[in-house]
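Justification of computing resources. Each target in the renewal requires a structure prediction run like the one illustrated here; the chain below, 236 residues long, is used simply to show the kind of job we budget for.
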Amino acid sequence: MLYIGICDDDRHFLDYIENKIEEILKIENASSKIYKFINGMDLLKAYDKEDKPFDIIFLDIDMPKIDGLEVAEVIRRKDEETILIFLTSVEDKVYKTFKYNTFRFIRKSHIDTELQEALNSSLEKLIDEKHIFKTIDGDLALYISEILYFEFIDRTVYIKTFDKTYKTTIRRFKDIEDTFKTKGFVLIHRSCMVNENYIKSAGNLQITLDNGERLPVSRYKIEEIKKSLIKVARRG
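Resulting structure tokens:
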């Protein structure tokens, strides 16, 4: 599930871009929840409830009271990871957005062509972003594509890659679930979460991974896993 925020003081444009995003994500077979904000203050209130409420934010530069640049300044102090895409009608302000680690900017006059590229590129980034994990041997940086699965054993999270198993210092499996449930991982039982791209087949209460390893599956999760297999196959 993707969590997307859109902030623009033009209600008609808010509805328009929401519909366009939904159309694109439907083609990509990606599920989402979209939250619309008519001003920057309402967007920032979402950060009072969660540290990282959105995977992607579309943010208008020109808004009254507090503009998009001021909103981005506050967001980046709280959240360095969210993909930030600026919307603008004034192209000469674009250079001012670069300091906020801007992923893309979209000209409103070119929304129909530039939105799809920006959104597809965002999905690619989310699929294979790099994460830093605390392990017993120090910090470990891994791309999502390097991780086969996470497993929770004796109140400790282990990370399995194609080459090695790493013992982390993470003591709550829910921390892994919350972070990776929107990043192409599926829970096969309450203490194991697998990268859906590496599930080769799903049988009777077990799956086989691309490396030949077999893992048990909860009977409550088998249908969800089969749906993941179909989704990955459609993606090609």
